[in-house]
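Researcher: Hi, I'm a grad student and pretty new to this. My advisor asked me to get structures for two proteins we've been looking at. I'm not sure of the right format, so I'll just paste the first sequence and hope you can take it from there.
Model: That works fine. Here's the first sequence with its structure tokens right after it:
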Amino acid sequence: MSSLSLAVRDSNTMLRRNLLHARRYPSLTLNLLLTPIVLLLLFVYVFGDVMSAGMGGGGGADRSAYIAYVVPGILMMTIGGTVVGTAVSVSNDMTEGIIARFRTMAIHRGSVLIGHVAGSVLQCIASVVLVGAVAVAIGFRSTDATALEWLAALGLLALVALALTWIAVGMGMISPNAEAASNNALPLVVLPLISSAFVPVEAMPGWFQPIAEYQPFTPAIETLRGLLLGTEIGYNGWLAVAWCLALSALGYTWSKSTFNRDPK
């Protein structure tokens, strides 16, 4: 069997292993998935009228308009929350001895990481679909988006999921236990909260605007918002792709070097 065939076979096996773990232990995934759904319902039904009135420039409350505004940010937050489970899963593998067992077996070395990454991206897409279904059920509509724009939006979500997954894998590998892995990955949940997910950057205090603007989630959210709602994307599309590629490269290099390091 060629090296490529061996890598594909072993990566597929590791992917099935991670998906089986997610199915057998769904509590972590469900807890992480519950957070964006609760935030979506909270901001729409509790704060929706007030937020939309404040953003509307005196035009009055319009909850439907705020639903359209907030959903792209919630979808990005869903990805950030889902990959926290990946960091915990990787940390468990690193600390419970299974990786040491894998090192002694005749399997492709990179298949363990590839299985985690592929499984996490699939779970992210599934979580986004579920949260998106809840958003549609409470009134979100994207009638102006073309099929190509929907495809581009899905591609952007998958690219963000890939980038954040590699970062989460690196965080999981350096964590001494599952609790530390969850804490280390917390910025992936917090960053969307201080982005343009809930209010425009220009509506924030002047000293806070650079924090919200110069981070990976804001350009990704603005790009997704433009694809689904027809708002201006500008340079945000290129920034979002650049952030994703940079984070993917950083996470891959970090994870690979840590995994290849001889255990102490």
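Researcher: Oh nice, that was easy. Here's the second one.
Model: And its structure:
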Amino acid sequence: MSLVSLKPILDAAVQYGYGQGAFNVNAVAQAKAVIEVHEMFRAPAVLQGADLANGFMGGCVDFTKATLEDKKRGAKRIADAVRKYGENASIPVVLHLDHGRDFDSCKAAIDGGYTSVMIDGSSLPFEENVELTREVVKYAHERGVSVEGELGVLAGVEDHVFAADSTYTNPLKAVEFFKKTQVDALAISYGTMHGASKGKNVKLRRQIPIAIRECMAHEGITGGLVSHGSSTVPAYIVKEINALGGDIQNAYGISIEELREAISCGINKINVDTDIRLAVTRNLKELFCGRPQLRESASVGDVYRLLEANKDKFDPRVFLPPLMDTVMFGEVKDEDTQAVMECVEKGVKEVVGTLIVQFDAFGKAPLVERPTLEEMKEYYRKNEK
């Protein structure tokens, strides 16, 4: 069946009390792997393309300089890949824009085939954030597409998203934001951080989602609460990367125990990106260590050289530009390229499969209603104030 919007998946997560992982993808092979591992565990799937991931998939190798046209091309390519592997899947599948930076980025994603978008106005004053989010909600809901907003600021770095310090979300402001914008989900700041360096033994302020949930219930507001910057940064993967010649330092994530507690306190959607990047990077290093003849391969040798030149990096987008046709379109021209893509897929499945189990999302796909986007358009038309 067709891809679905985020709202019914979050409604199920709220009702049944499990955590819905949301996993960032930057290549066709990653989209394929995310969907396949969710099918294996019979879990609902939320794939995310970040704003700059669209730029990268649009062919802009230096994705920090991606233009709107790059993002439009990339949004369609990611959507095409997700539809290819997701439309006939036995589970509900969502394609969600992560950290849309402005209305045009969100529009490009929706027009390209995304079924859910996030607009990040968290750096703006409250009323400006409300107005920007309302503008996106209007455009999206008219097309049956769900919307996630953000209130509060997370410290750390991820693509173009940067903040030196966190500003925790005010629960009363969160309720006001839901009322004024009609968003389907809200990303909150309660102690998580973007990037791989979150600090040791992070303790989340669970009283924040608890308070927001209590206020929402009092006001009769429904919606999902989202945890950004929630990668666990597995220590064993970091250790393995460094043993293979990498130089990843001060890499600490949010513990599984903290995230499971957060789920019980009202968090429904948990965003993960860094863990996938680390696992793929580890696998690539292992490939070239175990099969040194690939270092001189005409098709993938440059991937090895980029790995060696960037020992402190773990974003596969740094290493995979020599294979951009494969990244963007899934075209595998030879056995060497296939070996690299298998590394990518296995890394994704290792991380995503682990977290599906840890978040208790396995077996939950049959619990999710699957309205079409046309049906969601009608829902929003009848229920919007």
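Researcher: Is there anything I should tell my advisor about the second?
Model: You could mention this: The radius of gyration is 20 Å.
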